[in-house]
Fold:
Amino acid sequence: MSQQIQCLKCNVEMKLGPVEATYLNSKFPVQLLKCPKCGLVYIPEELARGKMLEVEKALEDK
Ligand SMILES: [Zn+2]
Structure:
């Protein structure tokens, strides 16, 4: 299942790549869709809803 998402500004297909996400002053790398032209990052709804928090918690628990 592949989903194609286009940048609304540039009308180009966004590509999956490493992006530095910031949560509570700590940075960590995630793979997200990014516009190769303007660098806009697409944030999936599940990530915006707090899945990022769970990811970070899982890392801290170790
Ligand atoms: Zn763009």
